Amino acid sequence: MVARSPDPSFVELFTPKLVTVLRERYGLADLKADAVAGLTVAIVALPLSMAIAIASGVTPDRGLYASIVGGFIVSALGGSRFQIGSPAGAFIVLVAATVAQHGVDGLLLATFLSGLMLLAIGLLRLGTFIKYIPYPVTVGFTAGIAMIIFASQLKDLLGLTLDGPEPGPFIPKLEALGRALPTAGAAAIAVAALSVGTILLVRRLRPHWPSYLIAVALASILAVILQLPVETIGTRFGGVPSSLPAPHLPDLSWARIQEMLPAALSFTLLGGIESLLSAVVADSMSGRRHRSNCELVAQGLANIASSLFGGICVTGTIARTATNVRAGARGPVSGILHSVFLLLFMMAAAPLAAFIPLSALAGVLAVVAWTMAEKHQFGILIRASVGDAVVLLATFGLVVFRDLTEGILVGFGLGALLFLHRMAQAVQVDRPDIADDRGNGDVRPPYDPALATDRDVVAYKISGAFFFGAAAGVAAALDRIGEHPKAYVVDFSAVPVIDSTAAATIEGFARKARRQGATVYIAGARRPILRALLTHGVRPPLVRFKSDPADALAAARRAASDAA
Q1: 523-544, pLDDT tens digit by residue?
Q2: Which residues of the chain fall below pLDDT 70?
Q3: In a 10 Å sphere around its CB, with 0-12 CB exposed, 13-18 middle and 19+ buried, how is residue 263 labelled?
Q4: Where are the alpha helices (DSSP H) in 206-332?
Q5: N vs C: which end of the chain shows fewer Cβ within 10 Å?
Q6: CA distance linking residue 10 with residue 373, whole number of Å
Q7: At what angle do helices 386-401 and 135-158 cross, to 10 degrees?
Q8: What angle do CA 558, 561, 563 make, to 5 degrees?
Q9: Strand partners, 521
Q10: What is the pLDDT of residues 322-348, one digit of tens each?
C-alpha cells in the first residue's frame, strides 16, 4: 500500500514563487539573466500595451499603467516563475463594451471588483476548478476573440472615416465598415502594410529581435519624415503622460457596484482562465509547476492596484510569458524588471509616443490576432470528432456573434454533456473467461507497472476515463518523475475514453521526453484511443505503439540497452 503524501499547507500553497526563487541561492548571474529577459519583454510589451488599450476604447497610457503596476504585482506575488502580467488581447472585446456602456469610471470599478473576486477565488482554493474548462472551449473562444480583434482594427488599418460611432456587434460593425470603404486612406494602408511586413520579415530573418517595436518605430519615423496624413496617438489622444498618476478609489456606491457586477464577473472568468492557461504554457516550456491559487491571488491584487492607478484589466499573457521564458529568465525578477523598464521608457520617451501612427499599432494587433487564433489546433479539433467540432464551433460562433461569457458557458455545458455521453458509451461488462477485445484468445492477468520498472525504464498505467478533468492530474504525475530514464512505457489498456485535452497532454509529455533523449512507448491503446492520439500528433517518431504492455516493456528495455 502506497502512503498518501500529505496535502500542502496554506503557507506552501500561497508562498510567492519569488520567495521560492530567492531561497534557491539566487545570485548575480541569475540577476543578469533576468535583467536581459525583463528588458526583452518590456520592449515587446511597450507597443502592445498601448495598442491593446487603444483597441479597448481607452487612452494608451492606461495600458501602460496596467503593465507597470499590475505586471509588477503579478511577478512579485504570483505562483508562477515566469508569468508576465499585462493587458491581453482577449480582454479587448469586454473592455470596449464596458467603456461604451458605462464609461472609463465604470471600467475601473469593474476591474477593481474583478480583482476582489479573483482574490477570493484564490484564497478559497477554487482555482483548481478552472482546469475543467474543455480544450475545444479554450481554442474556440481564443479564435473568436482573434477574429473580433482583427475586425476592430479594420477602421485604423484602412484609415476609414465613419459617419457615427463604430458599432460593437460583429455584423453591424462589418456593415458600417463596408459602407465607409470609399473613405479609405492610401497613407494609412501603406503604414499598416509596412508595419505588418516589417514584423513578418524581422520574425523570419531575426526571430530574436523585437519585431513589434521595430515595426512601430520604423512606421513612425517614415510618417514624420514624409509628413504622411495619418492619425497618430498625438492627434487622437494628445500624447502619453510621463509619470504614473496618484492612486484613487473608484466610485464604490452600492448602486454602481450592482451595475458593474456583470462586467466584473466576465472579467473574472476570462482573467482566471487566461492567467492559468498562460501559467500552464510557461510550465510546459520550462518544466516547472505553478501554484494556481497563489497565481489567482496575485492576479486579483494586480487588478485592484491597476484600477487604483487608472489602468485596465491585467492578466497573464501567453505571448509575453513565452517571450520571457525564451529570453532566458530565471524567475519572477525578470517580470518585476520588465515593469521597471516600462516605467523608465514612459518617463523618458513619452513625448515620442505622440508620433506613433494608429495604423501602425493596428497592424501590430492584426498580427497578434492572426497569431492567437490557434489555427492549427482549430483544424485538429474539427477533424478530431463530431462532438469536439460541435463544442468548438458553438463556442466560436457565440463568442463572435453573441457574447464571450455566453460562448464559454455554452461551450462548457456542451463539453460536459459530450463527456457524459462518451462515458455512457464506454461502460462495458467483461467476463474473465472470454477473450479480450484484441481477439487473440488470451486472458491476461492484471498488469502491475511497479513490477516492471527499473532505473532505465519507467512504466505508468493510466486507469479510468482520461478527460479534461483528469488531464491536469496526469500531467502533474508525469512531471513529478524524478529520474531521467532512457524510455517510458505508458499503459493505456485500462483507459476507456480519452478527449482532446488528454491527448494534448500526452503529446506535450512525449515532446518533453524526446527533448530529454527518452523514448516513449504507448501500450494497449484501444482503437478509438489510438485514433484520438494520432489525430493530435501523438504518432511515430514522437512515440512508438505496442498492442501489449509486456511487448512495450521488452522493446523499451532493448532501446535503453542500445542507448547505453
Answers
A1: 999 888 999 899 988 999 999 9
A2: 1-8, 130-131, 423-454, 469, 479-483, 563-564
A3: buried
A4: 211-225, 233-237, 254-286, 292-308, 318-326
A5: N
A6: 38
A7: 40
A8: 110
A9: 489, 544
A10: 888 888 899 999 999 999 999 999 998
